[in-house]
């Protein structure tokens, strides 16, 4: 029988990039790294599967800051990105690289940040 979890299941999130805290606006998402399976199909049968490594990523809408030039994030690498969720999950990307263009919405002061890494893990803190 499954145990019921008491406490927040969703809600707040915080994100740090190399130890600097950024305000998460709207949403954040992640995918852990690890192997992914791909079905091998021939013309006459499903033959099995192949396995390949898959990068992980952390992505979030962040609020821009007046003390950091957005250009400093563009093309950045060697990043440590930590996403902490209300439900106790801590997602960490080590030696990560920034992959999307940093486009700032000036009316809201927000931008989308995405970092990818060969090592993205999740830890559950109870």
Automatic annotation (TrEMBL):
<dbReference type="Pfam" id="PF10618">
    <property type="entry name" value="Tail_tube"/>
</dbReference>
<protein>
    <submittedName>
        <fullName>Phage tail tube protein</fullName>
    </submittedName>
</protein>
<dbReference type="InterPro" id="IPR019596">
    <property type="entry name" value="Phage_Mu_GpM_tail_tub"/>
</dbReference>
